[in-house]
Amino acid sequence: MTIAYIDEGAGPAVLLIPETGQDIGSLGTLASILVEEDFRVVRLEPLDPSVDVHDLVAAVVDIMDAVGLDHAWIGGHGFGATVARAVPHEHHDRVNGVLLMAPDAVDASLVADIPVLVIHGTADEVTPIAESERLVASAPAIASLKTVEGGGHLFPVTHPGETSWFIEDYLDWD
Question: What's the pTM?
Fold first, then answer.
């Protein structure tokens, strides 16, 4: 499986997987802001939801290997978040933490010792914010929820500044 990616910046690594139906540039503004704040961002093209999640996780780790990342924060939006939350289950030692933006409702547990930041738009009509609230409530010791007031499902695209601030603040990178 070949997946296009863009690798930019230097510093703590964040790998971003966009929502299905978006493109590799959809998280470009968010990535640019994070790069300006001294993060290294590897963003992927959207992943195909018809492919087995285990195969997608393997492809994500292959990209990490290709760009020389031993470990990173793994982030995703929508279906990308589904893949992001699966990575630590199979490659625990490669994941510093998980960033979930408007995560799809899936019955998958979080890994007990991997921190999770969940960001959700309050006006999301695709994935109700209640899904993120339920996810965080299932693991309050490791998961935190931040909300983008008025943000719809595409808040990482429409509100990249606020989204990046939540990420920067949570990762506490100065």
Answer: 0.94
How distant, in Å, are the alpha carbons of 12, 44, 149, 165 from that of 62?
Answer: 19, 12, 36, 29
Range of the domain at 73: 5-168
Number of domains in the chain: 1
Q: Flag whether 123 is in a domain.
A: yes
Domain assignment of residue 173, yes or no: no
Summarize pLDDT for 71-91 with one digit per residue, the tens: 999 999 999 999 999 999 999
Can you give the CATH number for the domain in which 111 is found?
Answer: 3.40.50.1820
The angle that helices 79-90 and 53-66 make with each other, rounded to 10 degrees, is 80
Alpha carbons 149 and 69: distance in angstroms, whole number: 34
In a domain, 174, yes or no: no
